[in-house]
C-alpha cells in the first residue's frame, strides 16, 4: 500500500501496474531452425534507443525515481513484445535494497576560522562521523614523515603523482590519477597514526576537481551484505588555494563531519520467452544488460544530463529486440532477459540477481552480457571472456565466434581481454558476478570512446546500423546455446587473476 502510494506520487502507479500484468500474446509453436535475424530491425532499435536515452529520464541514476521510470519503460516494452514477467510475485520487477552513505549537508569545515564551502572548496572523500580541531602540520613530501612523530596530528600536504601513473589515454584518466594519489598518500599517512589528512590538489588534479568531487558527493552505494570501507581517519581533498592557507604559520583546521546512512530501492527488470523443447524449456539462456547510468552530473558545455546512450541504453534496447525475435521464433531453451539496475554503482543489480535469481540458478545455461555496443569503427567489436584467464567456457566462446563468422563478420579486438590490459574492462560489467558464480558467461562490446561517462554520450552519436548487427550477434549466439542438445559447461581450470 505504501509502495503504491509512493508510485502514485511519482506519477508511476498506473504504468507500473500495467507493466506488471502478464502479456496475453500467444506463444508461437514454430520449431527451432535458423535464428530469425530479420526480426531485428534498425528502425525498431533506433526508436527504442532514442526513447530510453532521452533527457526525460535524466540519466537514469540508480536509486532515483528516474531509474524507476526507466525500469517501468523497459518493462512496458517487454510486455508489449509478449515476454512473460519473470521477476518477483508475477511482475517484471525484482526490487533490492541499496544502502547509501553520504556526507551530510550539516558538515562544517574551516581553516583558521575561514569557512570552506563543501563540494566547492573541499571534498570529504569518505562519509563518516568525526571531529577535528587542531593545528595543521604541513608536509611537502612523504619523506617529511621520517623521524617525525605525527601521532594524533592533522597533516596537510600537496597531492603527489601516484606510482605508477595511469596508462596514457586510459579512460577517466584524471579521476584515476586523483583517486590513486589519494589512496597511496592516505595509506602512508595512516600508518603514522595521524588524526586527519588534508590533500591539496596539484596542477594536474585541479582542473578535474568538480568531476572527481562529484564521486565523493555521491557517497557510497552498497548492498546490505557489503561492509563499509574501514576508514577511521578523515581524508579531505581541497583546492590549491586552500593548500596555500594551510601552509600559513599557525593554520588551524576545524571539521565537524557527519554521515547519512539510509536504504532505498533499486530494481532489476526480468522477463522470459519460453522455449519449445519439452525437456529443455526449463533451462534458460540469460541475456544481460543494465538500464541505469549516471544521472545528473557536472555540466559539460552546459549539459548536465549524462544520458548513457551507449552506456547502456544500447544493450537495453538490444535485449528488447532479441526478445521480440525470440517470441517470433522461439528457441529450444527459454530465453531470460535481465535488465540490471545500479551497474554504475558497482555491478550491484547483477550481484543481487546472481545471489537471488528469480529462476533456479541451476537452470541458467549461459549468460550473454552486453555493455556499450554502438560506437567506434563500423566493423570492429570485442568479445571479452574469450581468452584465458577470462574464458570460463570454451564451448560458449566457440558458439559466439561461429555466430560472428556465419552472420555478422565483425573484426574482433581481443587485446582488451588480456589480463595486463590497463583498463581491466573484463571486470567492469554485469557478466562478472555470474562468471564468479560458476555460470558460463561472455561480454559483447564495441569498447570505450571519448564520450564515455560524459554528457556527450547521446543517442545521436550511436551507429544504429552497427548496434543492430551487434544485437543480431548476441541473438545468434544465444540461439546456438539454446539449440545445442548438451549444455555448455565451465572450463575446469577457470580461475580469474583477481
UniProtKB/TrEMBL annotation:
Peptidase M28 domain sequence ranges: 268-475
Domain of life: Bacteria
Signal sequence residues: 1-19
Database matches in InterPro entries: M28_fam, Peptidase_M28
Keywords on record: Signal
SUPFAM superfamilies per record: Zn-dependent exopeptidases
Protein name: Peptidase M28 domain-containing protein
